[in-house]
Amino acid sequence: MNKLPREARAQILGMMVEGMAIRAISRMTGASKNTIVKLMEDAGEAFSDYQDRAFCNLSCKRIQVDEIWSFVYAKQKNVATAKTAPEAAGDIWTWTAIDADTKLIPSWYVGARDAAAAQHFIGDLALRLSGRMQLASDGHRPYLEAIEQSFGADIDYAMLIKIYGEPSGSMGRYSPGECVGAEQRCVEGRPDPAHVSTSYAERQNLSMPMGMRRFTRLTNALSKKVENHARGIAIYMMHYNFVRIHQTLRCTPAMAAGVTTTLWELTDMVKVLEDWEVAQKS
């Protein structure tokens, strides 16, 4: 099987993380849709594996967590009438944790929005951190038991519970009502009230749909398979953590967190993919 050169693969991956759909990438690069999909599948697996190994013993001190909704194949309400819907069709959530200081995203999880998913996500996050830290979340109740099981008393944890008014007009279809207040609730330890916030996590929930076409609503670029949805997110996270320079930090989150000392380029991402491909053959 012929393989695209490194520069062509870097170009395609760059288009993926800038919010372009697979068909659009095919039209602009001349690469076939199947070639692009195969690159996405392999890159997603390689980048997920690399970040899983790279993000350990992190000294993050202030973590914010949140979830963002999307769907695979069809929205949950339409799955029953959808033709040949796969088993994993329907609503899907991406749980993300972001370091408020370095803006690194050390952990994410793709799945349901239930207690089991919360435990998997928080358990993974706990294994990547060293030392005590402060964590802030919204009022989603599954966080309570998950954080208790994974951290116990070795954490400063607070919830920020936002109070929304009634949505008005057509905007109510896609957004909650206006936020009219917020309540800070200390759950464990002694969290600093000045840093009880989910603003960075919520801002990341805007960046993800802008960088991944499969998150864009009212299009046909949605994910058809849950596996490819997760792979697309892994590609985005690799670029965000290692390649994209954060405006306020003036370096990448991985550099700010001490995971790497060099500024990566897209070709460095392809090098990670190539190393993974060699390992798969050995």
SSE blueprint and pairings:
Layout: H1 6-16, H2 22-29, H3 33-54, E1 62-72, E2 90-99, E3 107-111, H4 115-128, E4 134-137, H5 142-151, E5 156-164, E6 179-188, H6 199-211, H7 226-242, H8 253-256, H9 266-281
Parallel strand pairs: 1-4, 4-5
Antiparallel strand pairs: 1-2, 2-3, 5-6
Structure description:
- The structure is a single chain.
- The protein has 282 residues and is an alpha/beta fold.
- It contains nine helices and six strands, in the order αααβββαβαββαααα.
- It has a six-stranded mixed β-sheet, sandwiched between helices.
- Strand 2 and strand 3 form a beta hairpin.
- The longest helix has 22 residues.
- The chain is globular and about 55 Å long.
- The mean pLDDT is 94.
Main beta-sheet strand count, sense and barrel state: 6 strands, mixed
Q: Biggest sheet: strands side by side, in what order?
A: 3-2-1-4-5-6
Enumerate the spans where pLDDT stays under 50 for 5 or more consecutive residues.
none
Backbone shape: globular
Cα Rg: 19 Å
Look at the structure and give the mean pLDDT.
94
Please give the alpha-carbon distance between the first and last residues.
18 Å
Task: Name the structural class.
Answer: alpha/beta
**Count of runs of 4 or more consecutive helical residues:** 9
The tally of beta strands, per DSSP, is: 6
Strand content: 15-25%
Helices and strands, in N-to-C order?
Answer: HHHEEEHEHEEHHHH
Helix content: 40-55%
